[in-house]
Amino acid sequence: MDQEFFDNIIYLKDLKATQDIVHEYTLKDQKSPLVIDNGSFQCRVGFANRKTPQLIFKNLICKPRKDRNKKDTKEEIAQQAPPATLIGNDIVNIEALRFQLRTQFDRNVVTHFYIQEQIFDYMFTHLGINTEGSVNHPIVMTEAMVNPNYCRSLMSELLFECYQIPSVFYGIDSLFSFNYNDNIKGTGLIISLGYHTTHVIPFMNGQHIIDKIRRVNVGGFHMMTYMHRLMQLKYSMHVNNITLSRIEELFHGHSRISYDYFEDLKKWSSHEYYDNHIKKVQLPYSQSAATTQLTAEQKIEKKKEMSRRLAEINARKREERLAEEEDQLQKLEEVLESFDDEDTEDFEMGLKELNLSTYEELEKTIAATRARIDKIKLKMQAVETGVTTEEKPVIIPMPPQGINLEDWLSEVREKKSAILEKKQVRRQRRSDLAKRRTAAAQERMRIISKLAGKEKGTDDFGSRDEDWDVYKAISREQDSDSEVENEKLMEIDEILRHHDPMLEDEEKLKMTPAEYHQLHFSVEAIRAPELLFQPSMMGICEAGLAETIDYVLKLFTATEQQQLVDNIFLTGGIAKLPGLKERLWRELMEIRPFKSTYNVKIAKEGSFDAWNGARKFTISGNNLNAHSITKEEYYELGGEYIKENCFSNFYYKTPAEKIDTTVVT
């Protein structure tokens, strides 16, 4: 096959998670900070003295359900160990347990702390921390932008009360990423592209402007879910094979942001563009289950084999018929002998048993039976000696005089379509009757129950000719394909095979099993990511990213706007999507005044920049202890307290302090 055919096929990797090892705990006597990027999609954990995180896993847990069909006594239940909870990379096959997965997040905010506790247990266990009753390492941890005080209070309570940590520092992931890629003391417009939300964060003179930050409730989760629905609606026959894990692979590996979405839609409407740019996703399939197409020679050979088997069946039937006829002839001759012996009583009794009335009728029956026996013997003798009638040459019908070949073939095709349509109607009727709640099955049951409900004394069914039409309504014999139709179809196929040049091309166009399990991945590659700029496509009544950037910029003076757009920074998991930078350039060109300048930069490592930025802050001598919350401060000031700095949220006391509005006279 052509190389181009293989170049446009996407073979899914279907990668399974590899279980994390338990690392050796070599920092028992050191106070090396532990950096945790607690993202709603992935969690990255590692000590600050390592260049890369030691654990990377999805923030999910799975608690297998108990088999409800298994009936155990209370004593047996008490003795059984609870089902093991799978966490992170222990969930090797996510799709098999999709409906049992749980996360500690509600959007981008941690709300389920009993799950978060199990996640912490998983982290500390696989890092090898074996100190009893405590984790003796300062923790640097990410939290959501404008994280509610209540959620932070519960997180601090969990860390200080349960794990007895010495201190904790809370920071915002996008600001850590900005620190890793740029000077945190500078100015810029940070666009944080998260899993559930997107934030536009103005950052000026080393501090984010909290009251001018805006959020769009669209993230990678919404884009992948939207793509998942599109593909399942497009290929309903493969709905079970189109899983979220495979869509995730397609989204990150083959999606892109369109520079001009509506212009690209016009391009995809062209058949030539479609054929040149289409990508085909190869789904897994079983080769053994694939049906092979028979050639014309194989069909002829198969037909001969069926004829041979039919001849054997007919020979057995002839032998059985011969035995029956000879037995019948013997009975008839015995009755005839009783007549010759003038045994009138036996003769009349014999005639009665044979359903005969006179001697002449007996003689006619004997003669007919002997004739049938002789005929059967002749056929059997002909088969045994190999004397067969010559096969008639196959005569291919030709178009009648005065009719064009194309018109005749068109008429033949219409006849074939009509027969196939009748067969399809009968097949659908059989399917409907097999189901209990279909209209056909209910109508049949109504007629049967109506007939059965009549009393014996008033049963006059059959006295009218239209009564017998009921049997046609409830009979299932009409649902089977007739031999006449099948023979007619074979005849039509033979005509088309000899006269229709397009039939061979149609045979070539029939899909192979591999092609049947291919998904055309076309406009979906740009349609799902377009949600970032047009949330209304998914029914979210919010402004897109471009409009939100425009709104935020208008909150500043012209000079400040120019300072912000000179350093636009994209961070997050979907910041690496191809075309995003170019699309923002185009949107900024429409937003900004004529001949304005601007600069767009993308994070170095996307998803890992937040962890790297937190690590950079930890080891850069920024006096981590001065910005962290110690256990003593937690007990004194409460769990919601936070020390403000360039990476953290602002602290707003709950409840807010009352303002004295008394007018002094």
From TrEMBL:
Any single Gene Ontology cellular-component annotation: nucleus
Residues forming coiled coils: 296-379
Keywords assigned by UniProt, alphabetized: Coiled coil, DNA damage, DNA recombination, DNA repair, Nucleus, Transcription, Transcription regulation
SUPFAM superfamilies per UniProt: Actin-like ATPase domain (SSF53067)
Gene Ontology terms describing biological process: DNA recombination; DNA repair; regulation of macromolecule metabolic process; regulation of nucleobase-containing compound metabolic process
SMART domains per the UniProt record, alphabetical: ACTIN
CDD domains: ASKHA_NBD_Arp5 (cd10211)
Keyword match Transcription: yes
Pfam family, one: Actin
Main location: nucleus
Subcellular location, record wording: Nucleus
Subunit structure: Component of the chromatin remodeling Ino80 complex.
Function noted in UniProt: Proposed core component of the chromatin remodeling INO80 complex which is involved in transcriptional regulation, DNA replication and probably DNA repair.
Protein name: Actin-related protein 5
